[in-house]
From TrEMBL:
GO molecular function: ATP binding
Naturally occurring in which organism (per UniProt): Ramlibacter terrae
Entry protein name: ABC transporter ATP-binding protein
Pfam family, one: BCA_ABC_TP_C
Swiss-Prot/TrEMBL keywords: ATP-binding, Cell membrane, Membrane, Nucleotide-binding, Transport
InterPro entries documented for this protein: AAA+_ATPase (IPR003593), ABC_AA/LPS_Transport (IPR051120), ABC_transporter-like_ATP-bd (IPR003439), BCA_ABC_TP_C (IPR032823), P-loop_NTPase (IPR027417)
ABC transporter domain segment(s): 7-255
Length: 268
C-alpha cells in the first residue's frame, strides 16, 4: 500500500442474515484529505463506518489502517490506534461539563499506573497539565470558551454537536470519522461546521472520512466523494465528477435539486 494511503478498504461486504448491507465496496483514503461517503438512506454508509470502528465484522474483504489489518483489532483499541469518531446521535456525558467531557477524550493518552495516581507523582501532574493544555487548544479552535464549564444537558443541540467533535479531536486522531456532522444544524451552524472541518484538515493535519447528506457542505470541504446505493459503489471522484454520474442523479433523494446543488458548489 502506498505511503500516502492512510486507510484502505478492499472488497468489503457485510451480511445481516439474508440482507447484504454492504457489497464488495473498495476505496482508499489518502493522508490529509477529506473523503466523503454520500447516498440515500439505507445505502450502507454508516455500516461502513461501523466496520471501520470495529462495531461490526466484515463478512468478506479487508480494512487496512497505516499498512496494518484493522479487522484483527478489538473495538476498544481503535481510538488508541489513532481513529476517532462522532455519531449521528450525539453520545456525550450530559451531567458533566464540557471541560470534563473533553478531558475524557484524553483517556487514550493515559499512561500512569494506579500507584502513581494514588500519590499524584510528578509524572502524573505533568500528564494532567499536558491534557488540560491540549483540551484548551481544542476549546479555542472550536470557539467553546463560553461553554467550558456548562453542563452538557443545558446546551443547545448545535453546541452539543460541536462538543462531540471537540471530544474526538482531544484524542489527537490521525483519522477522524464524522457521521453526518450537519445533521440537525441550521444553515449558519452548518457553515461553521464547514469552516471547522477545513481547519481540522489544514491546521491540524487530520485526515477526515465523512458521511453526509448536505450537498453544500460536501462540496465545500470534500477532496473526493464516494457515492453509494443499496450497499454498492455507484461512483467515486471529485464532487464535480460524482454529481455528473447518471446513477447518482437517479439514486440520490431529491435528485435534481440535491445534485444540482452539488454541481453549483463544485463549480465555485
Amino acid at each position: 500500500m502506498s505511503d500516502d494511503i492512510l486507510l484502505s478498504a478492499g472488497n468489503i461486504s457485510v451480511r445481516f442474515g439474508g440482507v447484504l448491507a454492504v457489497n464488495d465496496v473498495s476505496f482508499d483514503v489518502r493522508r490529509g484529505e477529506v473523503f466523503t461517503l454520500i447516498g440515500p438512506n439505507g445505502a450502507g454508509k454508516t455500516t461502513v463506518f461501523n466496520l471501520i470502528s470495529r462495531i461490526y465484522n466484515p463478512t468478506a474483504g479487508s480494512i487496512v489502517f497505516e499498512g496494518k489489518p484493522l479487522t484483527t483489532q478489538p473495538p476498544h483499541r481503535i481510538a488508541a490506534l489513532g481513529i476517532a469518531r462522532t455519531f449521528q446521535n450525539i453520545e456525550l456525558f450530559e451531567h458533566a461539563s464540557v471541560l470534563h467531557n473533553l478531558l475524557i477524550g484524553r483517556h487514550t493518552h493515559h499512561r500512569s499506573g494506579i500507584f502513581s495516581e494514588m500519590f499524584f507523582t510528578g509524572k502524573v501532574r505533568a500528564a494532567e497539565i499536558a491534557a488540560r493544555e491540549k483540551v484548551e487548544q481544542v476549546i479555542d479552535l472550536l470557539d467553546l470558551q463560553h461553554h467550558r464549564d456548562t453542563m452538557v444537558a443545558g446546551l443547545p443541540y448545535g453546541v452539543r454537536k460541536v462538543v462531540e467533535l471537540a471530544r474526538a479531536l482531544c484524542t489527537e486522531p490521525k483519522l477522524l470519522l464524522l457521521d453526518e456532522p450537519s445533521s440537525g444544524l441550521n444553515v449558519e451552524e452548518t457553515g461553521d461546521m464547514a469552516f471547522w472541518i477545513q481547519d481540522i484538515k489544514h491546521e491540524l493535519g487530520i485526515t477526515v472520512l465523512m458521511v453526509e447528506h448536505d450537498m453544500t457542505l460536501v462540496s465545500k470541504v470534500s477532496d473526493r466523494v464516494l457515492a453509494m446505493n443499496r450497499g454498492e459503489v455507484l461512483a467515486s471522484g471529485t464532487p464535480r465528477e460524482v454529481q455528473a454520474h447518471p446513477g447518482v442523479i437517479e439514486a440520490y433523494p431529491g435528485t435534481a435539486e440535491d445534485v444540482s446543488g452539488l454541481r453549483r458548489e463544485a463549480a465555485r
